[in-house]
């Protein structure tokens, strides 16, 4: 997906204005959840989301949506990752 399509889907889905978020190399935070829903697009690198039932890796052009309250960890490799992120409460 390209940035224009992502922005349209975010708006159509009721998410706020997308903003850049930069993940440092070798990030591995602890399991957590957000009080808001997230829609994101990877614009550089790879981002792996780990859930209790498995994990999924997202590369440039991939997007995903996480409903509020979803328990997850975010992992990056040595190159880190950049994403566009849009949220809604």
Topology, please?
Blueprint: H1 3-12, E1 19-23, E2 37-45, E3 47-51, E4 54-58, E5 63-66, E6 73-75, E7 81-88
Antiparallel strand pairs: 1-7, 2-5, 2-7, 3-4, 3-6
Stated plainly, the CATH topology is called Jelly Rolls
CATH top level is Mainly Beta
Mean pLDDT: 94
User: What's the alpha carbon Rg, rounded to whole Å?
Assistant: 12 Å
Structural class: mainly beta
Give the oligomeric state.
Answer: single chain
* Sequence of secondary-structure elements: HEEEEEEE
Low-confidence stretches: none
Number of domains: 1
Instruction: Specify the biggest β-sheet.
Output: 4 strands, antiparallel
Give the number of helices: 1
Spatial ordering of strands, largest sheet: 1-7-2-5
Indicate the percent of residues in helices: 10-25%
Any overview of this molecule?
By secondary structure, this protein is mostly beta strands. Helices cover 11% and strands 44% of the residues. It is built from one helix and seven strands; from the N terminus they run H-E-E-E-E-E-E-E. The strands form two sheets. Strands 1-7-2-5 form a four-stranded antiparallel sheet, covered by helices on one side. A three-stranded antiparallel sheet has the order 4-3-6, with no helix packed on it. It is globular and about 30 Å long.
Short account of what is shown:
By secondary structure, the protein is mainly beta. The chain is built from 1 helix and 7 strands; from the N terminus they run αβββββββ.
């Amino acid at each position: 997906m390209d940035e224009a399509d992502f922005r349209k889907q975010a708006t159509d889905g009721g998410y706020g204005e997308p903003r850049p978020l930069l993940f440092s190399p070798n990030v591995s935070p602890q399991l957590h959840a957000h009080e808001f829903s997230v829609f994101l697009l990877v614009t550089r690198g790879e981002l792996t989301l780990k859930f209790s039932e498995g994990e999924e890796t997202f590369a440039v052009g991939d997007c995903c949506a996480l409903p509020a309250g979803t328990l997850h960890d975010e992992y990056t490799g040595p190159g880190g990752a950049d994403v566009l992120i849009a949220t809604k409460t």
